[in-house]
Each structure stands twice: as C-alpha cells, then as structure tokens.
Amino acid sequence: MKTAEVREKYLKFFEERGHKIMASASLVPQNDPTTLFTGSGMQPMIPYLLGEKHPLGTRITDSQKSFRSGDIDDIGDNRHTTFFEMLGNWSLGDYFKKEQVPWMFEFLTKEIGIDPNKLYVSVLIGDEKNNIPKDTETAEIWKGLFADKGIEAKEVEIGSEKNGYDVGMQGGRIFYYDVGKNWWSRVGVPDKMPAGEPGGPDTEMFYEFSDIPHDPKYGENCHPNCDCGRFMEIGNNVFMEYKKNDDGTFSKLPQSNVDFGGGLERITAASLNTADVFQIDIFRGIIETLEGLSGKSYSDTNYTAAFRIIADHTRSAIFLIGDGVYPSNADQGYFVRRLLRRAIRYWDKLGIKKEGIAELVDPILDYYEDAYVDTYNKKEEIKSEIKKEEQKFRETLERGMKEFEKGIDSFTLFTTYGFPVELTEELAKEKGVIIGRSEFDLKMKGHQNLSRSGSEQKFKGGLADHSQETVRLHTAHHLLLAALQNVLGSNVKQRGSNITSERLRIDFSFERKMTDEDKKKVEDLVNIWISEKIPMIRRDMPKAEAEALGAEHEFGATYGDVVSVYFAERSDGTRVSKEFCGGPHVQNTSELSHFKILKEEAVASGIRRVKAVLE
Predict the structure, then answer these.
(1) Domains of the chain: which residue ranges?
(2) Contact status, residue 203 vs residue 237, Cβ threshold 8 Å
(3) Of 361, 272, 384, 268, which is closest to residue 310 (Cα–Cα)?
C-alpha cells in the first residue's frame, strides 16, 4: 500500500462517518508563542477542545504536517523522522470512547488490512494523586473487539515504562501504563500541566514485528513501549476530558473530546509489515535517487544511517521552507539550517561530488503534488534556498578547516564557525588525535540549556493562556495591522506575531524604518478606533468569500473551505479590520485602553518589528 492510499482511505473513512475534512495547518504555529513548530495535529485545535465552536462543526478529520526538532540528532534508526504527517480525527463534544475505539480497530484491520494478531494496546492505569481513575471502560471495549476476532485479550498491569522491562509481556494484549505513558497534554504529565491546560487519558496502538528479536540492551524483557524495535506505536486515541484548575486539581471539561493522532508513515510501514519506515514509497524514491548519485547501496550498513538522515532532513527542510521558514541563525530558521547542514555532511559521506542536495527536491515533492499543492508549486523557490544554504555551508567548512589547523577546540569550531563536531572528530582521528567529546558534550549541554531557557522566556505566555490581558492585546494586534496598512500602504503584510499578557509584537513586510511621524499616525489611528467603541464580530464563511472580501491571511497558514473571520465593524457596516482568525477577542474595542508603541526595529531584510502595549 502506498502512503497516498493510506491518507486517502483514512480521510474517506471518517468523512463517511460524518467528519469534515480540514486542510493541514502550517508547520509554523499561528498565535501560539509557546512552541516554535506544529508538532502534532492537536496544537491548532486547542481553542475548540476548550469549548470554542469550530466552523466545520463537531466532527473533523485531517492529515496534519508536523515537525519535531528534538529528534534531529536521533535520526538514523528505522522508524523516527523529524517531519511526518499526523492523521487525525476529532470529536468536539460529540462521540466518545465507544465509537472511536471500534472505528480505529475497523480502520486498521479492515481498511488497511493489518492482522489483528499483530496489534497490542495500552490504556491508563490511573493517577490516584490527581483523582484520575483507571480506564477500565476503554480496556473492556478493546477486549470485546479482539474477542470478535477470536483473540483472547489478557489485561496486564505494568505501571511505569521502567517496570515494563522487569515484568515483560506476561501473555498480555492490553497493557495498563501510568500517566508517563498513557496521559496526553501538550506539556506532559498532570503534575506539569499549567492551569487551564486540557488533557486526558489515552489508549495507544502498537504493531508487532514478530520477526525482530528483543534486544536486551534496552532491558531484560520486552513490552509494547520497549525501544528495541519489535513494537512500533502507530496511533494514539486521546480522550480529552479534563482541565487543570488554578488550585492544581482537575475537573471535567464542558465537553468530552476525542483527539486521535496516527503517524501516516508508520501506519503505511505496518501495512507492509516492514519495521523500516524508509522502505515505504515516499522514502524509497529518495533513496533510489541517492543510490544512483552515490554508487552506494542502502543495504550496506556502513551507509544506511547516512541515507536515512539525508532523506529525512531534506524532506523536513523542504516543507519548512515551503511554509515560509528560511535558513538562519535564529528561531525556526536555525533548525532549517541545522537540518540542511547535517544532510550535506552525510551527502559528502556518501561521496557525491558533483550534484548538490537540491537535486532531491523533485523526487521528494513529486510524492506530494496532489496532497500539498502550495508546497509543490514553490518547488523552484525551495531549490533556490537550498542551493544558497549549501553554498554558504561549503564556505563555512572552508573557514572551519583553517581554524581547525590552528588547533581551535571542537566546541568553538561548532558554535562560532558552524563546523560539525563529527567532521572535527574525523579530521582529528586522521592526525592521530582523539578530541575530548565528553568535554564537548558537557559544554554543548550547557549551551543548549541556556538557549532553551532563553527560548522559554521568549515564547512563554501568549494566546495559549487565553488570559483577559492577552485577549485584549490580541484585538489590539488586529487594529495595529490595519493601522500599519492604512499609514504605510496596503503592501504591508503580517510576517509573524508574539502576544503575551504584557505586550504584543508584530513582524511585517516593509522596506524602511518607520519615522516618528509614521509611529504617531499609527498610534493615533488605533486609539481613535478604540474610542469609537467598535464591535468585534466573528463570522464563519466559505474561504473564497473571505478572500473576496479582502480578509487578511495569517502568515504561512493553510485554511479549509470554511473559515472564521473577525471583523472590527461599525454599526453602519464599515469595517476597520477583517482577518482570518479563530479568536478569542474582546466584544468591543472600548474594552481596550490607551495604545502605545514601545519600539520599532528591523529583524531581517524587508521585515520590520513593532512592540506595543495597552497602558
């Protein structure tokens, strides 16, 4: 079965069960400054899981582009990828466990043709501390489904992942794990969740590759959450029914939600009974191209990891660039640069001399021509960006070689010159010198902790908390964009935002520094609109209608056929602002106080930034 077939079957399966198909959101989260990337299908859905009405209704399905930066250094095994598609379906206060679990079992066994004897599942053992019960209801549903296939589904209590290595399978089919494994929220286990964050128990589905023996280096005994490769998680049904309160306790959400996420690539691999996701069609084409260019074989274990790293990293970089993220030394752009430079390093390991890594853009995007038309149509732009980055990196390598000859330490070579530590190690080995990798790792850990701390400070707060101050500043943000376009010209477009409870920030396209007069005109215009007490009105409408009205698009976002548009609209029907947006907003601009610009500055060529507050 091909990847596109699995995607199509999944969307059709849930469309036939009353779900509306939603377009994938951008890899760059909109109005969520708590994270750099969209790492799951759930992220864009938070407002609706909390009770806000979705324009498509209460049953929704999609295939969401996702990127997880934390996995970059681990790529090279047979099942992890940094970019992946997350098949998703949601019930927003509609159906719940008794519908979702049988549907997933039917989809996997009937539509995809997976042998039910190779499926194993996990459920939540409960969390006594937070008064969250054991999920026996879900276990009973699974038990009945397996029984219908003539399979005895023995229940086994495991608890922690660590304990799983001690107790093993015990002939089980249904496994109870603690909140470390069978609880889902954006920020982890219940104790770590902030007030207002939704979460819930989940039930995960694992496929067994029975021909792969357990590797005892991971633990004495195997179990579904073992990392030895015998089991691969292919899907996770989250029952989003709790919200953390201000006092640290948990209460039920106004509505019980279902949030399913399943890795498209992994489900495809399971359908083929291959433990290596790089053997499915979308990767096979890339690897065959690399084999032709390099003269090396993917089956040669000396080069297998190199093939996987190049294929994964280049695909991820292509989709990130397609969503407007260009290689740089900061924020999202840093990861695009890191992906490409690591891919180029392994490209050289394969001994490819003439062609550049942009050669892979066509064989990768050819698989996505129908699914992601916008990205496919940016093919030439993506090639150009990758070629420029490779040229820069080759120049960096040349400078780094000179510094290496001077005896500069590996950490400085990496952080100052972007010189890969693996290359430093290889060159040192050729000279009969062993560099202090442990010292490098120690320094790097401190460097990453410092960067992470800075990132947390930079991205904390924002619309994710839905506080009243943040909501007020969100509305002010809409007015500010409209004022900038009014004063500086209609060519001004939003290129990023960050809204906390203390201030708002907008990045926008403009070629020159704003004058003091420009800034005063913008401030005055926003304050006039505030004084006019203009209602903020949300309307759900066809995307084509919203575009015809000239509603502003959020940067990098992809929208479905029906969208939400917020209007700052006077009683006579004239509109100050109109933007595609899911909210939340104040009801009237009179709820805002005096608007003031704090700072205006450049952030990149042709991109300016304004920071502002409500006094």
Answers:
(1) 3-277, 280-406, 409-459, 463-614
(2) yes
(3) 361
Return the CATH class of domain 3-277. alpha beta
- Integer Cα distance of 175 and 503 in angstroms: 47
Residue 252 parent element (H or E): strand 250-263
pLDDT attached to residue 386: 96
Pull the structure tokens for residue 404.
């290496």
Render pLDDT for 535-552 as a digit per residue (tens, 0 to 9): 999 888 888 888 888 898
By three-state DSSP, how is residue 597 classified?
strand
Per-residue three-class SS string for 145-187? HHHHCCCCCCEEEEECHHHHHHHCCCCCCEEEECHHHHEECCC
Name residue 1's amino acid. Answer: M
pLDDT at 455: 40
Residues 362-378 have pLDDT tens digits of: 999 999 999 999 999 99
DSSP, collapsed to helix, strand or coil, labels residue 61 as strand
Mean pLDDT, all residues of the chain: 88
Averaged over 68-91, what is the pLDDT? Answer: 89
Query: 505 and 476 in contact (C-beta within 8 Å)?
Result: no
Give pLDDT tens digits for 512-536: 999 999 999 999 999 999 999 999 9
DSSP string, 70-91: GGGGGTTSSS--SEEEEEEEEE
Residues in contact with 344: Cβ distance below 8 Å, sequence separation at least 6, in sequence order: 357, 390, 393, 394
| Cβ–Cβ < 8 Å for 521, 487 | yes
Token reading at 260? 């399913």
Structure tokens at 39: 């790492």
Cβ atoms of residues 389 and 378 within 8 Å: no
Which runs of consecutive H residues, i.e. helices, occur in 460-492? 468-488
**pTM of the prediction?**
0.74
Average pLDDT over residues 112-125: 98
**CATH superfamily assigned to domain 463-614:** Threonyl-trna Synthetase; Chain A, domain 2 (3.30.980.10)
Q: Following DSSP, what letter does each residue of 276-343 receive, concatenated?
A: -GGGSHHHHHHHHHHHHHH---TTSTTTHHHHHHHHHHHHHHHHHHHTT----SSHHHHHHHHHHHHH
* 3 state SS of 602: strand
Place of tokens 């498209």: 264
Instruction: Give the residue carrying structure tokens 């699995």.
Output: 6
Contacts (Cβ under 8 Å, ≥6 apart) of 212? 228, 229, 230, 275
Mean pLDDT for the stretch of residues 216-232:
94
| Confidence grade of residue 406 (pLDDT, cut at 50, 70, 90) | confident
Looking at the predicted structure, is the pLDDT value of residue 509 above 50? yes
Alpha-carbon span 378 to 176, nearest angstrom:
46
For 457, the 3-state DSSP assignment is helix
Residue 450's pLDDT is what? 52
